[in-house]
Amino acid sequence: MAEVLLAAQGIEAGYGKVQVLWRAGLDVRAGETVVLLGANGAGKSTLLRVLVGLMPAWAGQVSLAGEDITALRTDRRVRRGMAYMSELGVFPGLSIDENIRIGGQFVPRAVLGPRMTELYETFPDLAGRKRALAGSLSGGQRKMLGIAKALAAGPRMLVMDEPSAGLSPLFVSQVIAVLGRFRQSGLALLIAEQNVAFLDLADRVFTMEGGRIGFAGTVEALHADDALHRAYFGLGGE
Amino acid sequence: MLVGALFAGLVFGLYFTLVGLGLNLVFGVMRIVNLAHGDFLMLGGFAAYGLFSAFGLPPLASALIVLVVFTLLGLPIYYLVVPRLLAARDSEMLSIILFFGMSQMIEAITTIAFGATERSLPGRLLGVGPVILLGQRLPSSWVYSAVVSAVAVVGVYLYLYRTRLGTLTRAVMVSRDEALATGIDVHRVSAIAFGIGIALAGIAGVFAPFMLGSVTPAIGAGINIAAFAVIVVGTLGNPLGTVLGGIIYGVSLMLMQTYLSSWANILPNLLLIAVLLIRPEGLLGRQVRRA
Questions:
Q1: ipTM for this prediction
Q2: Burial of A227 (C-beta count, 10 Å sphere; 0-12/13-18/19+)
Q3: Does residue A32 fall inside a structural domain?
Q4: pLDDT above 80 (res B291)
Q5: Domain boundaries, position A128
Q6: Do residue A63 and residue A163 come from a single domain?
Q7: How far apart are the CA of A51 and the nearest CA of chain B, in angstroms?
Q8: What is the C-alpha separation between B191 and B188, in angstroms, rounded?
Q9: What residue in B sits closest to A92 (Cα-Cα)?
Q10: Residues in B touching A79 (Cβ below 8 Å)
């Protein structure tokens, strides 16, 4: 079994005095794709923000490749190979090229150049409009740029917050197809979603409700649980 | 007379661009209002006066010293004040209160240390005799100050659009949250921008005795109003929009002084009210506001 890359245990966090997360925990192994499934307000985004260092954990521990990173700032976590794609994902007022360069801010120039060439080959829609503002892109293209920006850092794992947000089903399937390609290249993915279409990518699933982790297991096990199946796929099944 | 006023307005416009540039850079990056901006300008003026009186240094040398010293001074001030402000719920309102207090302190300490008398520098330090541009005679000190202002504007442009740190600075201006999520060291970027912001004010202060006649410890408040008029016209948070705001302010000021001189002092307030009522997002609002 592959090494555990990211592990979070007993995470408690919130906003002001309002507690949102209650002893939440999950783990992602090297090269694995994990989907964190839950409805709006379940606490998925908050957990992700704690994992990437954008919010402090009131209690609990986050470790990356065995190193305790609970108190590390986000930039230090990025340097250690953990990239994060927020729901916004891009800087709308900057060009496509600038967005990707910022994603690779910690990468030596000699490495970033060839990596950007690869990324532009992967995302040909972006290659033809390098100087266009990210804000001028369609929703789907913005997501692609967000992915390219995050991957410019050359991460070992990519943490994504609702990549399907605001996208039509067609663009959602395009995003899933692109992520599938990177998954095959060995990139570990942690995707917080409420769209069950992303389960096609998942090796394992964690469900979240009321700030707590509920189910943890394989997609098959999720389907096998009648109550969970009804909750996430509806009465009629898939 | 009209052409002369327009020329003088352009020259003053470039200078007032420099006056507002640092304030707008700080607001654009940090979304806080530095009400002590005018007092840093005043300190630049006193530094130029002191360096000339003590060592005979010309204004350009003083400007270079002020650039370095004020940039370095900005770093500890930033780390002492701004991160705590930004962590607060209503950081923009708190920044107004805090920097107003800082402004009062700077003014009081300067008054105690140097007195309240006006300080001026001889115009010959920036050239003798008028400069004739397309038949219009302008004091050489005005033209010199305008050229320095233009160089500073170009310098800020090159910093923002041609350097890696500048790109990160614009990223923070676009979205502080996304910058944090991308792993940008937002405090480092902001501290440098804050240092540059007060250094620009300081450089404007070095040339204030030539453009405004003299400096006193109390000029900060008036400078702030002019600077606000410039950046609100040019668009809050868009440093390069300051150029447009500065030129409009400078030309309007000179036209008022030429044709309605007794009303000229209320120009900053008139411009502020007019823009806030008619186009509150500024003349360049929306199109380029956050980068």
A1: 0.88
A2: exposed
A3: yes
A4: no
A5: 91-154
A6: yes
A7: 11
A8: 5
A9: B174
A10: 183
**Is the pLDDT assigned to residue A236 strictly greater than 50?**
no
* Same domain for A224 and A150: no
Mind listing the pLDDT tens digit for each residue in B44-59? 999 999 999 999 999 9
Within 8 A of A89 by CB-CB distance, chain B residues are 178
Which alpha helices (H) appear in chain B, and where do they start and end?
2-30, 37-55, 59-87, 91-114, 140-162, 164-174, 176-181, 186-206, 208-211, 220-234, 241-259, 267-278
Instruction: Tell me: do A102 and A139 sit in the same domain.
Output: yes
In a domain, A214, yes or no: yes
Sorted by where each starts, the structural domains of chain B and their CATH numbers stand as 2-278 (1.10.3470)
* A182/A77 same-domain check: yes
Residues A72 and A173 in one domain: yes
Q: Tens of pLDDT along A42-51? A: 999 999 999 9
A19 and A41 assigned to the same domain: yes
Taking the Cβ of residue B87 and every Cβ of chain A, the question of whether any pair is shorter than 8 Å is answered with: no
- Give the Å distances, CA to CA, from A156 to A77, A82, A224: 11, 6, 31
B175 touches chain A (CB under 8 A): yes
Shared domain check, A102 and A193: no
Question: Considering only CB atoms, which chain A residues are within 8 Å of B180?
Answer: 54, 74
Are residues A51 and A166 located together in one domain of the fold?
yes
Domain count, chain A: 2
Contacts of B185 in chain A (CB under 8 A): 73, 75
Tell if the pTM clears 0.95, that is, is over it.
no
Q: Is residue A202 part of a domain?
A: yes
Tell me the pLDDT tens digit for each residue of A190-201: 999 999 999 999
A91 in B contact zone (CB under 8 Å)? yes
Q: What is the distance between the alpha carbons of residues B236 and B242, in angstroms, rounded to a whole number?
A: 8
Collect all residues with Cβ–Cβ distance below 8 Å to B73 and sequence separation of at least 6.
B195, B198
